UniProtKB/TrEMBL annotation:
Gene Ontology cellular component annotations, sorted alphabetically: membrane
One of the record's GO molecular function terms: channel activity
Gene3D superfamilies (alphabetical): Glycerol uptake facilitator protein (1.20.1080.10)
Protein name, UniProt field: Aquaporin NIP1-2
Organismal lineage: Eukaryota, Viridiplantae, Streptophyta, Embryophyta, Tracheophyta
Membrane topology: Multi-pass membrane protein
SUPFAM superfamilies per the UniProt record, alphabetical: Aquaporin-like
Transmembrane region(s): 55-73, 85-106, 126-146
Entry coiled-coil feature ranges: none
The entry's keywords: Membrane, Transmembrane, Transmembrane helix, Transport
Amino acid sequence: MYWAFNINQLIETLHVPAYISAQLLGATLASGTLKLIFSGKHDQFSGNLATGSNLQAFVLEFIVTFFLMFTISGVATDNRAIGELAGIAIGSTLLVNVLISGPITGASMNPVRSLGPAFVHNEYRGIWIFILSPILGAVAGAWVYNTVRYTNKSVREITKSASFLKEAGRGGRQTV
């Protein structure tokens, strides 16, 4: 039985509220800055509002967040992926997600991306969609990736970083 107290896990768990708070503060300050810069006759809302039905917005936000988290899990936590190309994979997924869901939901994919502008503009219509759906989509995306990736190896072995650039440098050199 493993009952030992792991201080590192406790410290990492305590980082989560600080991370969420920092994201929320950043989103609120950014939205406030945009409101100050672009205020005028037509006060522009920089947040997310669904143009379709609530169900359509919920499902769409779930799907795009699922794909984003699945991609991030694949390229950031698995040593079989080429780490140097993670940015291209994640950026491409974001691009496709925004092209598909942007016109309908604003492509939030992050609850604080919607909460910051909602606080600044005092606009909360449908905010539950943009809080609940991305959380469920991210959890589902990570869970599905971990299920697909199942292996008997430890997480430490799986997440060892392997660089294709280093390998190319070793394989490309030939001594005469």
